[in-house]
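Format notes (please read before filing issues)

Several people have asked whether sequences and structure tokens are stored in separate files. They are not. Every record keeps both together, in the order shown below: the sequence lines, then the token lines. Line labels are part of the format and must not be stripped during preprocessing.
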Amino acid sequence: MKTVLCLGAGLVAHPYVHYLCEHGFHVVIASRTMDKIEHVMQGSDNAEPVKFDIRTDDQLLDQLTSSADLVCSLLPYVYHVKAARVAIRHRKPFCTTSYISEEMKTLDREAKDAGIVVLNECGVDPGIDHMSAMKIIDRVHKKAGKILSFTSSTGGLPAPEANNNPFGYKVSWTPRGVLLAGRNDAHFLRNGKEIIIPGRNLFDNYEIMEIPSAGRFEVYPNRDSISYIDIYGIRETKTMFRGTLRNLGWCSTLKKIADLGLLDVEERSLEGFTYAALMRQLVSAGESGLVDAVASTTKLMPTDPIISRLQWLGLFAERKIPTGTTTRLDALCHLFEERMQYAPSERDMLVMHHEFIVKYPSQRERITSTLVDYGIPNGDSSMSRTVTIPVAIATRMILEGKLSLTGVVRPTMPELYEPILNELQTYDIRFNEHTQQL
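Then the structure lines:
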């Protein structure tokens, strides 16, 4: 029985472990928190827990990697390269669901020399977005077509019946990642013009999008879209945009949160602070009139729904910020984690929508491809399934010798995306595609 080392036991890990155990693999789950491991192991007979801290347990990482046949890191992205280096040294294939960082790119030659694949971006976004897009792009190119425009937007959201808090959002993966993404600059191409949006202005630059069978959403730019022109092989395109979907009201609220300085990651002492005291410091308010002071600073009326959302979240409460919190962003994360949990039996929803404008020698077409997936009540969330089932399928393919790639790669080639997308349909994770002649 082959062994997979799964680093991390967070919100999305359960489907990965369950899939591999069901397919006859032994999975070692290494994480700092044993109760999280126990949750991830539920229903999986071939799983083994190991208490492990990537920050300090270097010798244990070496031992676990040497004993495994493949390593998958579901840890925060900052630890992937450390784990990948150890995997390469032991000539063990390595997988993640995260973006390929500049540092990860530098491992390409070492991975090829070791004869192993280092597969990244094999989750949902990034991951399923690449695979579903490349399936259409390759088909168009084979028919002598050109991609004139490509836009792609994705969001993990509460299902409509669970959309019952003022933010229109609940936690299906780490809120720190969600909030950090709101600090990123955006770079995209629209009608032949490159557009750069500084992170401080990100939430000012959203549009309303209507997606059939899903609803109306705000969409705002997601990081660097320009690089995907080469990754997808569509140098001919005049528009390349990747966006994030959120429910209505999110962007204006997050803009004010950012303006207040609550996304700041500078280390500082918050020991003994209450949330109200932190807010008073940010808006230079006295002991009374905090709501009015925040409204004045953000140029809103005290009755504005955004102020109500901040109050609902707990930012005006005289309660202590958790001990050990050292950044304003992490103080905010604690509130997101506390206030935005799914109740038992509530479902989340994953929405992904692609739109292509295609030119063939004799005609033009608009192609739309939409995925709307829901979590399983009292079971795995849609976010966890769409993030980790793709990388679980890839893991099985690698260990069964069905993939001969080496080096640092993402799933943009047919030998990866075709079998993964086909198997995802057996889990009812499928796209609805429409073509309209223009």
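For reference, the curators noted about this record: Residues 128-252+345-377+431-437 form a domain with the Dihydrodipicolinate Reductase; domain 2 fold (CATH 3.30.360.10). The first strand starts at residue 3 and ends at 7.
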